[in-house]
Amino acid sequence: MTVESTAARTPRRSAGNKAGTTGTKRTTSTTKKAAGADKSAEPALVQLLTPEGKRVKNAEFDTYVADITAEDLRGLYRDMVLTRRFDAEATALQRQGELGLWASLLGQEAAQIGSGRALRDDDYVFPTYREHGVAWCRGVDPTNLLGMFRGVNNGGWDPNGNNFHLYTIVIGSQTLHATGYAMGITKDGADSAVIAYFGDGASSQGDVAEAFTFSAVYNAPVVFFCQNNQWAISEPTEKQSRVPLYQRAQGFGFPGVRVDGNDVLANLAVTKWALERARAGEGPTLVEAFTYRMGAHTTSDDPTRYRGDEERLAWEAKDPILRLRRYLEAANHADEGFFAELETESEALGKRVREAVRAMPDPDHFAIFENVYADGHALVDEERAQFAAYQDSFADEDGGK
Ligand SMILES: Cc1ncc(C[n+]2csc(CCOP(=O)(O)OP(=O)(O)O)c2C)c(N)n1
Ligand SMILES: [Mg+2]
Q: Which regions in the chain score pLDDT beneath 50?
């Protein structure tokens, strides 16, 4: 398995802030080694499609995509294009004041569509707040993802309708939920698997370490899918870990693998492998999808404050959509008509999303007090009464509101 020995990592040269300097000043032997290394010292990752769109052989993982058809490949391309279009529309809607916030997945389409398409319907997904591509694969209508970001509901879909849990904002906590769910699956005697999505920053959370421990000792059928998009808001990955993230699995006693997160085929193959391990009773796997957050952390963030253009440009050359397009074209798997039709479909999706968001009804002001406790609670009653008095304070002298 692709679990290399600890390789030195190169601290990123920061966009002129102190972060990078602090990183290179540390005096441990590991960091000293890293400081002298260049980017070629990064460990190898599983790649089936190069950034130029060339198919490369992989003895371990080719078998997981051996039966893929041209139609399947066009399907993966379509998923990525429509997800990106939806995401761009959501970002624009936030800028127009229609959403309070948006967390863009720009750049992470291959990691999400590849892993999402590896799942069976009966598998269960525990996402973060950025898994719009996985939601798409699960059949959650994209418009339903927007209610929470507009502030009109607390989620927007029934998790059990698509085996896709609600978005989780408390970083890393969903890895524990996933582990518990996976332990339950084993008790039920089912052969479904669970996948937990989380980020490079989340990997530093205690919850994630606990999830690794529990899943390992209980041999739970769970795949930990870490999208290492290089940043946790303004904190770079090299400040989260001295070793490549996938190597952390070794210490917990299960395999970890680093996959090219911008290669949809590789993500599909590696996730299928990890899910098969889970189904076969071989326990958890850590997949580190090495990718890049091309946009801001959220629409509230300004990445120019902490990173430079150089880095972004280097990752743009590895764009997940472009590389599959190059492959499709070179292999004659898609013609102009396909791309033109997809463009029309993208525009229609954008329009549908815009109209759906603007039509979302405002919630009843008092709805927030419902569903806190199944049987009610005196403190919630008190807060409801306080809020009612506050609302009433806006009544004008005639008693109108
Ligand atoms: C427990 C917890 N601590 C802090 C935060 C604030 N916070 C929101 S996103 C984020 C960074 C997460 O980075 P990463 O896990 O790499 O995911 P990404 O946003 O890059 O997808 C932090 C610290 C939070 N939501 N929850
Ligand atoms: Mg991150």
A: 1-40
